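Human: I'm a chemist; would you kindly supply sequence and structure tokens for a protein?

Assistant:
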Amino acid sequence: MDVDNSLQQEIRSHLARLRWYLTGLYRGGMEHWPARTEAADARRQARDDSPQPALPENPPQNPAAILSDIQQELGDCKRCRLHATRSRIVFGEGSPAARVVFVGEGPGYEEDQQGLPFVGRAGKLLDKMLRALGETRQDVYICNVVKCRPPNNRTPNNDEVEVCMPFLIRQIETIRPRVICALGACAAHNLLGVSKPVSQLRGKIHYWRGIPLVPTFHPAYLLRNPSQKSAAWQDLLEIQRLARSG
């Protein structure tokens, strides 16, 4: 292949992906989806390894209105292939002034049917854990890395995450929680830019743009591995401590 043509193709692909990532303007169908390249994956890894920018000093004046604007911009999203098999978009739920934001992987069957996050079996377990802390889902904010259910509840692909992450980032920037809880590997990996298993990440306080971030096991994992509930409970106690401090 001619080097100049290859470079031009790479630049066009890079600019297209930047357009989706920074503005969320992409509305096309899958027939226009640019092919992923090794160079693009290398750039993504470099971005993940780079220092995270600090949040702006001044918090938003009306977070509820801003979250509504973000949801309207998301619209009837068709920016990635997940739109073809979803029933409903699951934007997020909870308090715009939440001290804690819980981030999961993506909607499951019940979430896809109702358009609400964590309403299936895993969600019921999360509700029980919150009640044990004296909280309800109305006190916190719950959302996911991707807002459409992946087929058969598979892990979201990198390109699907890249398209959806800007909306998640803006949600967190708007709410400005005192602590973020990453529920499971997908949330932890994409917020922290790491690939270690949750078992190695949990038990420590990490940071996302200056906000403390505590990884813990996903409630769905706890349903399959109840012996880990005590470890997750310790993580939630740490989250509660961070949320009430300062």
Summary: The domain at 58-244 is CATH 3.40.470.10 (Uracil-DNA Glycosylase, subunit E).
